[in-house]
Amino acid sequence: MTDPDATPSPTPRDGDDARAAAEDPRPAGPVAGTAALVDALEVLRGRLGALRLPLHTPGADAARGDLHRAVDQLDDYLLPRLRAERAPLLVVVGGSTGAGKSTLVNSLLGEPVSAPGVLRPTTRAPVLVHHPLDARWFSTDRVLPGLARVSSGTAAAAPGAAPVPDVDDDRRPPDPTPGTAALRLVASESLPQGLALLDAPDVDSVETANRELAAQLLGAADLWLFVTTAARYADAVPWDLLAQAAHRRAQVAIVLDRVDPGAEVVAEDLRRMVAEHGLGDARVFVVAEAEESGPDALSDGLLPEHAVAEVATWLSGLGGDPDARAQVIAATRDGAVGDLVRRAVELADAADVQESADARLRDVVRRHHAEALAQVEAATSDGVLLRGEVLARWQDFVGTGEFFRGIEAGVGKVRDAVAGFFRGRPKQAPQVEQAIARGLESVILDAAEQAAERTYAAWHGDAAGAALLTGLDLSRAPATLREEVGAQIRGWQDDVLALVREQGASRRGTARALSFGVNALGVSLMVVVFASTAGLTGAEVGIAGGTAVVGQKLLEAVFGDEAVRRLSAQAKERLSGRVDAVLRGQSARYTAQLDALGTADAGGPGVRDAAHRVAAEARAEQASRPDPEGATRPWSGGLLRGAGTVRPPTTDGVARVPDTHGGAAEGAPAKDRASRWRKLFGRKDPSP
After folding, report:
1. pLDDT, position 6
2. What are φ and ψ of residue 571, in 5° steps?
3. Which of 226, 224, 131, 225 minimizes the C-alpha distance to 185?
4. How far apart are CA 184 and CA 195, in angstroms?
């Protein structure tokens, strides 16, 4: 195994032999151990993509942000990484404005591939530097699939940067359109094959798009190399991102740049903050402030080799060993999977809250409109409607005195009285119909108006409902409701007349019924309906002037007792159905807002099940991994500038490499050294 603590003695070899030696025997796509995990993640991706959290419920804003980050985590990192396990280790260099990220990258490579400065013209086109043999990994959508590519041949390339070869691949991302973010790809022989450096935009950029792109790139990193300065290492914005990295157990190393001599206390304070934020395993590198002249001065914009040697040695050792790279990738990937599962379960809980809010709002609508229907049914059953204009028109229609005394004399005389009555007053029936229609209309409109007011008040007092009311006039019944109610009442009156005709046609007394007048019999049935369920007695009978009794006697004289009871029940049922249709239409003004959001089935159980499956497949995949300890790989590719030259030359001109990784110095017995993983990250194994 290559020892990353020592100066890398193997030198890059030219030709096919070196390339063959660098080949990784693992398959390019998902291996058997990860195929099931990829399938589970794809199912989870589909269910998260269908998840909607539109209602203003407690924690919904944070959940929507988590949903966006979870989808990005899958699209930008987990799925591409698992589908292409042999892809190079992607080290994203991030940090605050002016921290020296680009200068560090250029200094590690020994060539100006990324333009430094506070005002960077390349911030919208982050620079990704790779070994020439790794070009195809980055020119297709297997890595960072959401970003377009700009090769050195089509953009302002840095001197010495090799062009990215054209690739005939259906997965190649489209060319960028003006104003959109894109990766600028630069090939460099200085990198070990299997290692790539990405200079990301500033995490605290004044431009929102740059900040979002920086966060996206950091989320897609196998290893985050965070660069800060002695003056700005405690800034809040970077630590928010570092806290997120700690939460998902991402692999992180920190470069403290521009440290003045004697300011070691700054490095110690940074290490304290790193530990407090859950990043105790993160490596901390210190880069001294460049001087204006002398061996520590910038040369052609590059830091001295010894200034970046510690970082270069560490990255070169990491990049030159496929097993070491695989462990870093696995550690970050495992942390990302664990974080995704946790996030998905919380999103499923948030979806359940959405469903509960949806059900609560629908129940409000249902309850108030059910009350409105009950209000109408009561008003059309307890005799209230038989007062006022309806009573006056009915009394004009049936008359009083001799006719009532005739009814009281017996049914036989009633039939004779009824025949003469209907022949004498058929033209007055429409007046009663009109009065009934106006009375019904008033009752229904009043009930609908109250339901609208109560529903609006209840929704307005609920945060989830209040947000849905914005811009909508739902506090009152609409102006078009009167016309709709009128049409339903006319339809019901036609229903009543149809019932009378049907009943007359089913009996031998058809001629008698028709001779009496269908309209008059229909009006009588309407009057009976309005008092049929309450049974007017005593004072109410006196108030209504015997209204229901007269109507019922008239109908019984024609159709018989049993038929009248059946006709009354049918007419009442049809009236209730039409009133219910009106009120359901009014309810739909509210429920349509929820239907459009789809929150009745927000998808929480499906997301939760998919997350549990991912967790199970991840455990199985981790258990099936071979033990990498003891494996060795030859060095492949180049060495970063300064690798192995940790200190400036001494007076005798010999560069010495101190023990910078926590193990024994070069030449110490192997048994006295910690494992490679412990030396790289302070861990015994890559398990999160």
Report:
1. 39
2. -65, -40
3. 131
4. 16
Distance CA 339, CA 215 (A): 16
Measured in whole angstroms, the distance separating CA 199 from the mean position of its chain's CA atoms is 29
- Using DSSP, state whether 488 is helix, strand or coil: helix
Distance of CA 507 to the CA centre of its chain: 66
| Structure-token match 């058929």, residue found | 426
DSSP letter (8 states) at residue 192: P
For 560, other C-beta atoms within 10 Å of its C-beta total 14
d(CA 2, CA 287): 25
Per DSSP, the chain holds a count of helices (H) and strands (E) of 24, 8
pLDDT of residue 384: 73
Distances (CA, A) of 129 to 153, 206, 442: 14, 25, 78
pLDDT at 411: 44
pLDDT of residue 17: 37
Amino acid 186: pLDDT: 92
Q: Which residues of the chain have pLDDT under 70?
A: 1-32, 116-124, 152-181, 292-297, 395, 398-429, 506-516, 532-548, 627-637, 645-688
Residue tagged 């927000």 (tokens): 602
Q: Taking a C-beta distance cutoff of 8 angstroms, is the pair 641, 109 a contact?
A: yes
Position 391, amino acid: L
Q: What is the pLDDT of residue 556?
A: 79
Q: pTM for the whole thing?
A: 0.74
SS (HEC) of 564-619: HHHHHHHHHHHHHHHHHHHHHHHHHHHHHHHHHHCHHHCCHHHHHHHHHHHHHHHH
Residue 130 backbone dihedrals phi, psi, to 5 degrees: -140, 165
State how far the Cα of 12 lies from the Cα of 19, in Å rounded to an integer. Answer: 10
Task: Confirm if 388 and 603 have CB atoms less than 8 A apart.
Answer: no
The residue behind tokens 């995990």 is 37
